[in-house]
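In practice, a research group might receive sequence data for several interacting partners and want a quick structural hypothesis before committing to experiments. The following worked case mirrors that situation: the sequences arrive first, and a predicted assembly follows.
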Amino acid sequence: MRVKVLLFGPEAAATGRRELMVDLDPGATCAALKQALGRAEPALLPFLESGRIALNSNFADPADPVTPDDEVALIGMVSGG
Amino acid sequence: MSVRATIIDGPLPPAPAPPPVGDETGALLVFEGLVRRSEDGRPLAALDYEAYEPMATRQLTELARLILSRHALLAIEVTHSRGRVPVGAPSLRVVITAAHRAEALAAMGEYIDLLKRDVPIWKKPVWSA
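A structural hypothesis for the assembly, expressed as tokens:
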């Protein structure tokens, strides 16, 4: 399945992109998604260990599955406040 | 008990009048985060804030509910900027009312720590020419 991942802040700046399409096996987890992000866009590699996946505006666990209908975002180090 | 969280465009307007004092209110605490004049030794003109909505507002709200409950507060209201905020202007306001100062002070510190960890808002410096 093909999944769109939204990028923000430093990750968007590092890649020059606001979104990235990633190919995943059906039933792939958020952990697998992070690995796929690193392969698809090596500029994201420094951000992936500390980055978190959000599914439909909620932080997800690494074992949570990603579905084609999810809104997916990579949330790196935030800097609000 | 009430919780309110809002993201607005640009710098925050002046703080509104304090809420009416309820029978139990003994403490009203206001924190404002201001844009500093410099970052890493370089003079700033402003900060540009980016927010991932609706997650940012949802996180501000859910963290406020958590802190309200954990510290038995009476109310917590949060306002955060999106877009450009010039040096010296406020980009964050947190208003807490509680029965006593101890829980208000503890809650304020904890809420801001959680905000800085878990709310999808990013700031980018706009350097002075």
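Before designing any experiment, note the following. Residues 30-40 of chain A form the longest helix (11 residues). The longest strand of chain A covers residues 2-6.
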